[in-house]
Amino acid sequence: MFLSMSHLNKTYSGNKVAVEDFNLEIEKGEFICFIGTSGSGKTTTMRMINRMLNQTSGTIQIEGQDISKMNPVQLRRRIGYVIQNIGLLPHMTIRDNITLVPRLLKWSEDKRNQRAKEMIEMVELPDSFLDRYPAELSGGQQQRIGVARALAADQDIILMDEAFSALDPVTREMLQDLVKNLQQKSGKTFVFVTHDMDEALKLATRIVVMSHGKMVQVATPEEILRHPANDFVEELIGRDRLIQAKPSITTVGQVMLKTPVAMVSSATLVQALKLMHDRRVDTLLVTDKENHLRGFVDIETLNDNYSPTKQLGDIFNERIFYVNENAVIRDTVDRILKHGYKNVPVVDDDGKLVGIVTRAALVDIVYDALFVDDKLDSTGNDDQETTGMTQPSAESATSQTAESSQSQQTGAHAKGTATSDETKVGD
Ligand code: ADP
Ligand code: MG
To answer: What kind of fold does domain 3-244 have according to CATH?
Structure first.
């Protein structure tokens, strides 16, 4: 194992337990992101890796070597550290800024100059910048130099602690792309602290979720999205927040499309193919005569088993995931995301097919929710009930439109009656 952290504990003076039984094995070339709320122990854990802090107990090994037995210079040759928002040093040229750590590590001047050239090319800036001073560069260019500096000493492991957290979104994305790209090219191992789930999802090969000094989940971004270990992780992912921002929509029935493409199981494959073609779908839902949902068939199965004499009932797949029209949308979103379904059929209490929830419609709802939030923020309008009624997108079901205008009317009506009620009370 390349970097191995075993039973790490850190208790600060005053018995403050900051990290508890932390175990992690990191392969060479991984991009590990630590994520968690403030105070969860991310910085403490990271700082133990290069001995800026000593653990209370447990061991850290690099390629089998216990770091507590390495001398500090030897360790720093292998591990680089980039703290939150340290800017470039203003009185040093770009060259000297880039080669700051190589100089501390006593590289020769030739080697340093060579490295400065390599690094500035790597971050796609012209060599002529090397003799300039930071103030002569734009903010974004300075940030690129910061990344060049982080990688300049050619250490095997790069530690970055919330390095991008104070940047504007455009610069941040640019640097994320740059870092990810350089990391993949160089094969270096990154341990990157962030409190931004989007950033972690974008950069990490594996995400380590921390809470109160403990590791909550270690998984790939995909696994984290599909199978968050608990509510805390789900909250970090943030979809609850997004969905709850639109309180007026709560059940599946309110957003489903009421025109699922379905056929009875006694229909022939010829009829099924024609319907799929006409409606431009690659999956058909299959029902019985009373419209109870029975299963589905996809175009591959249909083609593979095609015979003009067969019926849908001969070939359809009974293993189908569906939701009740009264189910809470939040749970449906969870399941669609977790299982990767493109859409999910909706049934009533009798198991009859009444609609379909598409991934596209859910995405619209999430965007609507964001849009409402923005609007409230920028106008300072606190009349949420009325402002919340943005026009629904065409994709989201008609029931949503009906609900919106109805609520608007109700809102207006309520205001009118409030006055007359007051009058009545006064009487
Ligand atoms: P994070 O980086 O996730 O925000 P930290 O590792 O900085 O968390 O801190 C973890 C916990 O340890 C927090 O409760 C913090 O208040 C505490 N802590 C951090 N540094 C010290 C210190 N030098 N002395 C005492 N407690 C500390
Ligand atoms: Mg921190």
So the answer is: Rossmann fold (3.40.50)
